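Sanity check

After download, print the first record. It should look like this:
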Amino acid sequence: MKRIKDMVAEANTMVEHAPATKLLDLPNQNGVTLVDLRDPRELERDGMIPGAFHCPRGMLEFWIDPESPYAKPVFQTANRFVFYCASGWRSALSAKTAQDMGLENVSHIEDGFAGWKKAGGAVGDKPQK
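Expected structure tokens:
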């Protein structure tokens, strides 16, 4: 049986990652899309990185695939995609999945939104639809 911690460790050997302290300037960079993978309830409760694109983890593959009826144009750009979740586990798996699906410039925040807040990163409210 493959354990989740082994899957995360394997993903981290295959995708670029860094702690939040090294990525605090990302929201100000052109051509970078931060992707928040957390559940909508987490966003309501904790907020999110201002300007991040919300993609619930369960929809990632469907939103990336340009042939999917659920494809999102944001994933059809040449941007750098930096994924994050609460602690870095979902984002490690998601970054690997995105890379496997053909996104070329993919990474993740290894300590997640918790690390982002601890590092003093900007936090805003979940945008209203």
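If your output differs, re-run the checksum step. Summary of this record's structure: Residues 4 and 89 are 8 Å apart (CA to CA).
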